[in-house]
Amino acid sequence: MMRNMLMLAVVASLAACAPPNPGIVFLPSKKSAVELRAVQTRVIPGDADSVMRDVIATLHDLGYRITKAEPGAGTVSGTRQTALSMAVVVQPRSPRESVVRANAFILSFRQEAQVDSPEFFTQNFFNPLGALTQRTLAALPDDATAPEPVRPAAERNAAKERRAAAQTPAGSQPPTQEPTTPQTTSTGSTTPKTQAASAPSTAPITPPATRTNTP
Question: Is residue 106 within 8 Å of 55, Cβ to Cβ?
Fold first, then answer.
């Protein structure tokens, strides 16, 4: 009995230490924790529940596919074009104010790089969030508590997509599908009409040049 329990403990320990994406090298940001906090965090007027709904709506508008949402924990994850993923955490700062922290990653050739560009978060998330809510976002004061960044959650059925993205050289774009809309003919029947898919409002950025692909 004791031997079986020991074996189970060893297996659980090994599982906890296993990398989330075997074969893919994780490249964390080289910025300090204080710098990342400033880049990823904003204060927005509104209670946490309404801000969370606004965050989800903003991600949808930006072309993200929601992979996981936990309103109780204040977190939501989304994936865009399989190569860009983002996780956002919302925490109340007061009954009428919330703190939003976003964390993004780019999956390229056998590597997953953390995005740390201030322009990326400002132009590709916080500005659209402010535009949707018609509210002004502000920087979090240095003496205020910021939520911990969250890693994006992968889709359960996205394993093939992630493997394909890992085999795609950096800078290449995955193919997009063209949606079809019905078109009524003179006889009254409907036939599918192909129209070009509208591109997302922003394009994924590439990791900094200093981050080279791992052989």
Answer: no
Q: Are strands 25-27 and 180-184 parallel, antiparallel or unpaired?
A: unpaired
Query: Tell me: the pLDDT tens digits for 120-135?
Result: 999 999 999 999 999 9
- Could you say which residues of the chain have pLDDT below 70? 1-22, 154-215
- Choose the CATH number for 26-153 among 1.10.10.60, 3.30.310.80, 3.20.20.70, 1.10.1130.10: 3.30.310.80
Gap between the Cα atoms of 162 and 155, Å rounded:
10
Q: 207, 83 in Cβ contact below 8 A? A: no
Question: CA 160, CA 74: separation in Å to the nearest integer?
Answer: 28
Q: How far apart are CA 19 and CA 14, in angstroms?
A: 10
10 Cβ neighbours under 8 A, 6+ residues apart:
none
Both tokens assigned to 125: 């998330």
* Residue extents of the structural domains in the chain: 26-153
| pTM score, whole prediction | 0.64
How much is the pLDDT for 152?
A: 86
